Amino acid sequence: MNVLMVVDELADVDALKALKPYFDPVEDLQLTVLYITDDKSCIQLGTDEHPHFVLPDAELIYRDEIEDRVLRTFRPWHERVHFRHEIGGDDVEILRRVIREASIDLIALNPRQHTDDAYNGLPLRKIVLRGDEQPVSIADAVRT
Q1: In the prediction, which pLDDT does 101 show?
Q2: According to the model, what pLDDT value does residue 138 have?
Q3: DSSP string over 41-59
Q4: For the ranges 13-17, 60-64, 125-129, which has the lowest average pLDDT?
Q5: Residue 121, SS3 per DSSP
Q6: Side by side, which strands form the sheet with 81-88?
Q7: Are strands 81-88 and 106-109 parallel, antiparallel or unpaired?
Q8: 48-53 long-range Cβ contacts below 8 angstroms, 24+ apart
Q9: pTM over 0.70
Q10: Residues 53-71: what's their mean pLDDT?
Q11: Average pLDDT of every residue of the chain
Q12: Residues in contact with 26: Cβ distance below 8 Å, sequence separation at least 6, in sequence order
């Protein structure tokens, strides 16, 4: 089972801890934790199909803090957890590409994301993480 969690801040990583008891028995679990940086906050080098971006120091530090928190939180699952950083202006396009590339089966959302149309329009099963409470399934959808 391939699960995607999009994080915007460090608190989102802490919410991922709620998944541990539910997914620990799943032997084929792969968890992809995605952090997206808006390309408007970067300097773009090149105008071809695959430009390079230079991130501000503060964004690099924050990205590293999130990645470190993810790796510490899921240290026992180190082979099953993957941190992924993407840069772009269209979160929906990035999400769809990551879902396709990683063959995602389920997306775990924080309450802020649950109300975002970009996430609600994705053709996946979704669960909402609500702090220390049990995750809630909000949709059953067939992946296209």
Answers
A1: 94
A2: 44
A3: GSEEE--SSS-EEE--HHH
A4: 125-129
A5: coil
A6: 81-88, 30-38, 2-7, 106-109, 125-128, 136-139
A7: unpaired
A8: 53/87
A9: yes
A10: 88
A11: 79
A12: 1
Q: Which amino acid is at 17?
A: K
d(CA 98, CA 33): 10
Under 8 Å between Cβ of 137 and 36: no
Between the alpha carbon of residue 74 and those of residues 14, 20, 66, 78, 110, the distances in Å are 10, 8, 12, 6, 18
Q: 142 — phi, psi (to 5°)?
A: -90, 130
What's the residue count for the chain? 144
123 vs 103, residue with greater confidence: 103
Q: How far is CA 3 from CA 12, 92, 100, 130, in A?
A: 15, 17, 12, 17
Asked if 31 and 23 touch (Cβ cutoff 8 Å), the reply is yes
Cβ-contact 4, 98 below 8 angstroms: yes
Q: In the chain, count H helices and then E strands.
A: 6, 8
Task: Please give the single-letter amino acid code of residue 15.
Answer: A
The arithmetic mean of pLDDT across residues 56-68, rounded, is 89
